Amino acid sequence: MSEEETKEGRPGETRRGFLRSAGLAVGGAALAAGSARADTPDPLITEEQPWGQYLGDGVDAHPYGMPSRHEAHVVRRNVPWLTADTTSSINFTPIHELDGIITPNGVCFERHHGGAADIAPADYRLMINGLVERELVFTLQDLMRFPRENHVYFLECAANGGMEWRGAQLNGCQFTHGMIHNVMYTGVSLRTLLAEAGVKPEGTWLLAEGADAAHMTRSIPMEKALDDCMIAFKMNGEALRTEQGYPVRLLVPGWEGNMWVKWLRRLEVGDQPWYHREETSKYTDLLPDGRAREFTWVMDCKSIITSPSPQMPILHGAGPTVVTGLAWSGRGTIERVDISLDGGVNWQPARIDGPSLPKSMHRFYFEFDWDGSELLMQSRAVDSTGYVQPTKDQLRAIRGTESIYHNNSIQTWHINTFGEAENVEVS
Amino acid sequence: MSKFRKALLGAALIALPATALAEPLGLGRPALPEEVAAWDIDVRPDGTGLPVGSGDVSTGEALFEENCAVCHGVFGEGVDRWPILAGGEDTLAEENPEKTVGSYWPYLSTVYDYVNRAMPFGNARSLSNDDVYAITAYILYLNFIVDDDFTLSNENFLDVEMPNAQGFFFDDRETAEIPLFTHEPCMTDCSAPVSISAHAQVLDVTPEDAAAAERRRAAREGGEVAAAGEAPAEAPQPEAAPQPEEPALDPALVEAGARVFRRCQACHQVGDTARNTVGPHLNGIVGRTAGTVEDFRYSPALTEAGAGGLTWDAQSLAAYLENPRGYLPGNRMAFPGLPGEEDRDALIAYLTSMSR
After folding, report:
1. Separation CA A405–CA A287 (nearest Å)
2. Which of A245, A283, B203, B291 has its CB 3.0 to 4.6 Å from that of B306, i.e. a possible disulfide?
3. Is the Cβ pair B107, A280 closer than 8 Å?
4. Which CATH class name applies to B251-355?
């Protein structure tokens, strides 16, 4: 970036910039950083407003409450050219619009392989079979009689960021990083559930199968199943959403989202993996020599600045600015997040705020005084094992550009003098 | 520490593992053999789970054309963005690798298992065991793995060798990556100054997002960000011209029809953004002359039927949907039909509602 460009474009030094930082025009009000002042009284304050005069909706107007109508743009979005049809496709969580660590149920991204199955609770059955002492069938009522646990976990699709391997492609963190959500689940540990059937000593693998039209299956090593896997029937306190596997889904904390089988109908205990479609043809990582990694389960440590980002430009011009984002690791907690404003040459620590839970999203903030110049903004997470989130070039040196899955590289946003952000790569 | 507390702690220590191992609570009921047989359909590379049965390439070809080709193409070449099943040999180390059953899939059991559990898309579990053997044989034939006179069965299943069987290895990130990326993070002068080497905007493939566009406008021009619901784009609709009276549709029936339509939407779209995909879009289908959606390549059978005066109304649609092949021989819709009258009525109500 040239110095002239920087100077000319500095919002505080142009009329447009001045107006903007003054909070501006018709009814804007906030006094920013002492530099802005109102010349005329704000009619939003001096005049009575309809909501202050007339009655609003009574109770029961909305038996199930929805977000304010002013938030109608906070929605999942898909990328139509990615897949042939929405029944076997994915959409993306609007992470640029959210804060804190919990993803609201209605905007948790969806990934279906045969559409979202619609199963009445009374029609639900879960079977445990294979290498167990007792092959069993449970109703939903049966499952509700086991001791319950509550845990917050992120669920990230292994293909999150998969469109970005060859270069910067999608302009928005919703699309580059939105195949993720973070939810508090209520359910029963597989340890408890499998004990009911009695796993035989030779039972070293578990097959999870969905009831949907894809009958999705994945093989899970028994060690993981007995470590922290669960079945869940509640998310963020309420029943699972249909598109998240109602009435029961599997949780495989820290591991790729495809394994978290929705509409779970069966758990089979075996003595070797099944090598089904989703663990051979898909969800294997093709490397430059033409061979592929299989069973790449763990989601590596990753972070993303959600604001500013291409869908969330800085609107207030120079001055005090809040940078925020998310960090997570499938191997534990997030130890620290650093921010770079110069494309990774120099770094400053960000502040993690809110609960720090293993295999859960962490929220970070970085407050700074923006001088209105161009920035190359990055975040870099370090997890509790000491793993440092790598650059895209570091990953490409090992994996090439055709492995699709597990892109956990550092993201760069170019912030221009207007405060707009663009997805770029730097070198 | 008092003896009492020690005893308590001891009890707690003993109690903990007992909870962890969890005594059975006696919940659930034994699964019956018929129930396990109905759901336990999985097949493993060692052949465990394969049912007795067989199917040959030519039977498979006919089944494939009827059930699979509409998405995968007659030669497994893939239609639109549906999966390509054949070809791609020796491309895995190249820039645009083609990962097909022949070039990539390591185990034949995966093909049998997947076709049996999930295909045909939108009508899963409708094929017999012999059908699945035959389709699997045909997919092998498409990939030049077997000859055209081949018959696949549970007897010879394990003799088939997949070309890329040796192409996979267990996740090695633990040794290949983690040591490289586990270090003290660098904080200052970590590299020479960098510059931008690639822009997302150059590609311009990001879906429209009106709220983001409005924010970018505000960033450039200043001014308030217009709320999503109040954007100028959402101008009030002009008053609709009076429509001739149409019989009212039962909303419950329309809703039921929307559910039935899920079985069609792998190939057909309807609504504001509908376009032709595998099948023609269905906007305005009710009342339309058959075979006349612009830019859709119909079978000669359908085009001729339209030229001969066939118009889609409730009656003709019902007959077609009940038995697509029987009603219009030679048409390309690979859909077995809706045997239930209720389903047909609901679907037609839904399509009528979308046609108004």
Report:
1. 11
2. B291
3. yes
4. mainly alpha
